[in-house]
Automatic annotation (TrEMBL):
Source species, domain of life: Bacteria
Family: Belongs to the UPF0340 family.
Protein name (database record): UPF0340 protein JOC28_001559
Cited HAMAP family: UPF0340 (MF_00800)
Any Pfam family the entry gives: DUF436
Cross-referenced SUPFAM superfamilies: TTHA0583/YokD-like
InterPro entries assigned: Antibiotic_NAT-like, DUF436
NCBIfam families named in the record: TIGR01440 family protein
Amino acid sequence: MDLQVLENQTRALVIDILERSAIKKGQLFVLGLSSSEVAGGLIGKASSLEIGEVIVKTILEETQVRGVHLAVQGCEHLNRALAVEEAVAEAKNLEIVNVLPSLHAGGSGQLAAFKYMAEPVEVEEIVAHAGLDIGDTSIGMHVKRVQVPLVPIQRELGGAHVTALASRPKLIGGARGQYKEDPIRKF
């Protein structure tokens, strides 16, 4: 796999989702990543530290430029705990848990987060405003309601299927309700 091509495709993908999701400075963006799927294998069976590092470093650069906080979801072996900056965990009153990710418990994305974040910690759960799922890792449990699916500009990254979610406030009030313009779908 050409890592420069992977970086370029990842950058285009995350910029697209960050812009269309209407995520704001200070909000959380969740990444679910299967480097196995990106490499063309089955989730959890062909983890690649190199692939994880390229993808996480690129996404971290793009989120930091916008003042958006990245949370990297771990695999099921860590109950889908998330790597975030300690300052973010403290500011958002997130429950910090004591575990260190490995390639096969947490995954390459979490190892990369621990490499590239200033002071990473693991938290049990978050409520993100948007997210990117590379390799069908099921990020929905970490994105707030109401979730809005976004079709990414590219539906695959390497061999991995790619999906994305944004969120919007609930519409209440029924037939008499009036609403602000939806910044995601612009209805």
